[in-house]
Write a structure and sequence with these properties.
Number of domains: 2
Strand order of the largest sheet: 5-2-1-6-7-8
Mean pLDDT: 94
Distance between the termini: 15 Å
Number of strands: 14
Largest sheet: 6 strands, parallel
Shape: globular
Length: 348
Amino acid sequence: MGYSVAVVGATGAVGREMLTILEELNFPVAELHAVASRKSKGVEVAFGDRTVKCEDIEQFDFSTVDLVLMSAGGDVSRAWSEKIGKMGPIVIDNSSAFRADPDVPLIVPEVNPDAARLARTKNIVANPNCSTAQLVVALKPLHDAAKITRAVVSTYQSVSGAGKEGMDELWNQTKAIYGLGDATPKVFAKQIAFNVLPMIGSFRDDGYTDEEAKMWNEVHKIMDPSIRLTVTCVRVPVFVGHSEAVTLEFDRPIEPDEARALLRDAPGVLVVDKQEADGFVTPVDAAGEFAVYVSRIRKDHSVKHGLQLWVVSDNLRKGAALNAVQIAQLLDEQGVITPKSGYRSITV
């Protein structure tokens, strides 16, 4: 028994990763549809040891599927997700289009699985921003043990967060700097190769960017609106993997050893924390992995009850595709989705 699943945006970096992770996690797919824009109709994408030809979103009948994984950007999601939801399938949307909607649950399964009960309100579930997903996985076990009152987060986000175009720009600029092409920025505001950019998204009137606002709004919706949170988001010349320097204040004392023990027992977390040259995790180490890694757990001596952490994860996986498939697993386990018909073998 399995589900009929459509992946919208199947030719993009996250869409392809969704196809890979559906296979890796053995999600019960009986029928798989790769869906994209008309210009990608017929393009082949890999699903396990098979290939699937993309279908045109304008012509596809979404009423025939049980589940839609949407990763085609906010504009496409705003145009399609509610229409698809009204046809019956649940849409798990990777864009920011519905994250703030009070009728749409925003879910990280390790953190707020109970929110799945709201999935049928609009038949849409929102996937949080990539940097938020890894942050809340690391914060949840600590917050449960000693309430977090304030957090200061600086992110170091890879270019894959801007899609394939961002990755291409880093690659092309790196070559160009050595005399092999044009290094003029096209995707990012300034040169990204051998540089860091303290701006992701668009500036708001208060001087923060919308990327920074996403993090505090989403942490409040997923975990606890009482946590005071300030954020600086930085784009770095890394292909895959987001890193975060996190400073936390608690309502009671919490020692680094206690935090390490809590995090080691937490779902989705791996602690790599030794005071030696290879005792921490970098984006290169995390690329291709499922876990949220936590390193450099130490006391913050500048406040009464403070800790500092280093948090790293593959943004294409836990930050996007993996979390979406884990949401699908959660909906399956809780009986929120059921197959429309008795599919028993995979057909593509």
